[in-house]
Amino acid sequence: MKKNKSLLLEYSILAIVNFVILSFYLHIDQINLKIPMLYSGDALPTLSFLKQIFIGEFSFFGVPESHNLSAPFMHSLGDYPTPMFADWLIIKFISLFTNDYFLGFNLFVLLSFFVNPMAMFYVLRKLRVGILLAIAISILYNVLPFHFYRIGHTFYINYFFLPLLTYYLMMMLNKKPLFFKYSNTQKKLFFDFSKKNIIIIFVLLFSSTWNYYYTFYFCIFVFFFTLIGYFIYRKRHYIYSGIIVLLLSIIPFVINMLPYKTFTKINGINAQVAQRGFAESEVLGLKIAQLLLPINTHKIGALRDIRARYDQSAPLVNENHFATLGIIGSIGFILLLLMLLNINNKSSIQNRLAMLNIIAVLYATVGGLSVLFALIISPSIRGHNRISIFIATFSLIAVALFLQYLFKKYQLSKVSIFFVSMFIMLIGLYDQIPGGATFKTNSLIESTFNSDKKFIQQIEDKLKRYSSNMVMQYPHMSYPEQPVLVKMLNYSHMVGYLHSNNIHWSYGAVTGREGDIWLKSLEALDIKEQIKVLQKGGFTGIYIDRRGYIDNANMLESKLKEILNIEPIISEDKNKSFFDIVPTDHTIMKFSGFEKNFYGWESNQFGSFGWTSGSAILLLQNNRANNLNCNLAFNVGTLKNRNLKIMFNDKLLRDFFLQPGLNKTVLLEELRLNPGSNRLSFITDTPGAQPGNGDPRSLAYSIEKMKIICGGISVGNLIE
Q1: Do 573 and 599 reside in the same domain of the chain?
Q2: Quick check: is 687 in a domain?
Q3: Which of 302, 431, 498, 669 has the fewest Cβ atoms surrounding its Cβ within 10 A?
Q4: Is residue 151 part of a domain?
């Protein structure tokens, strides 16, 4: 009981100190919880996940889907896995206390600023670091530059599992293998079902679906520490221990991925989404210089200038500049490197940290083992600079252990320990917290948020006369990971979904899937034809983000005013407009397009030029009620020798051999298109391959200058 009271007091002191620091340095006491801390870029899809979970639309055990996105079809994330079951559970728990998902987002972010230091403090106290020093280091762990810079990548900032996982990794090199106990009577090792091990098992299971990058790196460390444990002690139980840890970390993740793999098996590989190349592991790799350099918004001008000189001239500067450790973490990092020069006791805590640190550096650094992994096994994990948060964990623990050693060696008084700990904490706070970092609500975010909220409410009020609503959003932007369109950032269209309750928005169509192909085909038509197709399909409105147009959408809006003879609703910030249209039917006009294994037309113009990744299927859509005879003409080319068969509705039309540099013109005459979908299959016996010019795609054969001619008229990809 006395021990529990002592622990409660320690954690209470840490919580109070943490809150005081967050209030003094970051003004957390002045936060407006109703306005999201971030409201652009990657924060928007994160907010959409929260909304889906809050309203019960999110699937915890399947592929996340939404019936309010990707109109006139359905939004599905089968091509873009989010295997983060543990995160979804925490968010669902937050939703039990509020139905405001914007508030929920802020609470999820704030959670990281209170749980991260608690986890580090727990581990430091387990390692017998004094309470004052443990509090100081835990506070610095909480305000690492990584924490602030990664708020946009929200699922990286709750890194509280990492101190625990580090502690478990160090336990793997104990004289007694993790999960095992020694029987004095039988002189053998047996599995230990102790309370401690049950807790470790639970943490490993839960953390495995928290962040797949963290799970992946943890498994890398486990693999190497399993081998190190075996070579130090020469006992097979260290192998067993490592296998158990790996299984506990991998199996839940694999189970979490099964729905996505099933989706891919049913729908085929989407060659246009999240295709990674091994070179990206090089580009986004870890750089030791960036670990040690100061932050780019440092309060000291001279240090800020040093960082600016590096960022302006050095190659491969990207998100990896988030990896800065700060001066205290850098000292720990250097200490860990120096320890490698004199490893006498390989099983000491300090040397275990040194081994973890060097494994992280060797694996993730530019040109390191991660590139070989990406080249030989899989390039899916690419942003290896993100391992820096593990390195920061190792480094700060090392600083704490080193200082604790000095305190003990020189028998410092409690007063001296207090002042040394305070000094270290204050230096770290000044050094690590980016200039301008604050929890105060950003005025631009607040005004934009309120403008969008009011604007979307006006749209809903305008459309409430209809029982169901679909709104076309211009310009079309595919989902996910799209470049900036003029001044319109990726995911900007998501604000419509976030602020509405009863509208099915066109945004959210996944690149290369049916909805995306349909919307791109629609946008290629003349605007009068587009409105005709939208009205026939049951759409009730047109939403325009003016930032996506060079002329601020002046030409598009002028045409819509002329055609519809109405004035649009304009948002308060003047960035968005809305025109309501009257639906004439609920029949979705289908466009012809490739079903799978096609990277899309490179100019977004049907028939221009595009690459396949292997055997592909072109769906020829006949929107008429009767059969129609059409001719098809196109050219095909290849990067390597291959056979290619062309079949129409299971009937073989052509079978020929392709050679690099010798494009072949194909003319298919008198194709009888049945009403609805008709399949033109391109079947090859040779898979695609990367061209070797930096393009990460696997390219098989190209198709260009495709024309569909019906009744002597080129009809494009809309046959009606």
Answers
A1: no
A2: yes
A3: 302
A4: no
Asked whether residue 545 falls in the same domain as residue 657, the answer is: no
Q: Give, rounded to a whole angstrom, the gap between the first and last alpha carbons of the chain.
A: 80
Answer whether residue 312 is part of any domain: no
Tell me, yes or no, whether 562 and 467 share the same domain. Answer: yes
Same domain? 565 vs 658: no
Structural domain total, the chain: 2
538 and 609 both lie in a single domain = no
Mean pLDDT of 256-279: 86
Per-residue pLDDT tens over the stretch 553-603: 999 999 999 999 999 999 999 999 999 999 998 888 888 888 778 888 887
**Three-class SS state of 62:** coil
* pLDDT at residue 588, as a whole number: 86
Please tell me the pTM assigned to this model.
0.90
Highest mean pLDDT among 263-272, 379-388, 709-718: 379-388
Inter-axis angle of helices 527-537 and 554-564, nearest 10: 60
Q: Tell me the pLDDT band of 1, cut-offs 50, 70 and 90.
A: low
Same domain, 546 and 624: no
- Inter-helix orientation angle 131-142/101-126, to 10°: 140
Cα–Cα distance, 187 to 572 (Å, whole number)? 78
> Is the Cβ–Cβ distance between 427 and 142 less than 8 Å?
no
Find the angle CA(530)-CA(534)-CA(536) to the nearest 5 degrees: 120
Helix axes 388-409, 101-126, angle to 10 degrees: 40
Task: Tell me which amino acid residue 112 is.
Answer: S
Phi–psi pair at 18, nearest 5 degrees: -60, -45
Residue 488, in any domain of the structure:
yes
Q: How far apart are alpha carbons 37 and 113 in whole angstroms?
A: 14
What is the distance of C-alpha 77 from the center of its chain?
A: 12
What is the rounded CA–CA span in Å between residue 639 and residue 357? 43
Strands 65-66 and 593-598: unpaired
Q: How many residues does the chain have?
A: 720
Q: pLDDT tens, 432-457?
A: 999 989 999 999 999 999 999 999 99
CB atoms within 10 A of CB 196: 10
Question: Residues 6 or more apart from 562 whose CB is under 8 A from it?
Answer: none
Are 549 and 633 part of one and the same domain? no
Question: Left if phi > 0, otherwise alpha if psi is -120 to 50, otherwise beta: which for 450?
Answer: alpha
State residue 592's pLDDT score.
Answer: 84
State mean pLDDT over 125-136. 97
pLDDT in tens, 171-186: 999 988 888 887 766 6
The CATH number linked to 691 is: 2.60.120
Q: How far is CA 507 from CA 76, 158, 245, in A?
A: 12, 29, 41
Across the range 455-477, mean pLDDT stands at: 94
Shared-domain flag, residues 568 and 483: yes
Q: Which two tokens stand for residue 628?
A: 């129609």
Token code pair at residue 596: 């799978």
- Strands (DSSP E) along 490-622, which ranges? 504-505, 541-545, 569-570, 576-580, 593-598, 609-622
Structural domain of residue 522, as residue ranges? 463-580
- C-alpha span between 635 and 238 (Å, rounded): 60
Token representation of residue 386: 């993100």
Q: How sure is the predictor about 188, in pLDDT bands with cuts at 50, 70 and 90?
A: confident
| Cβ pair 207, 169 in contact under 8 A | no
Phi-psi bin for 655: left (phi > 0), alpha (psi -120 to 50), beta?
beta
Give the domain-ending residue among 580, 612, 645: 580
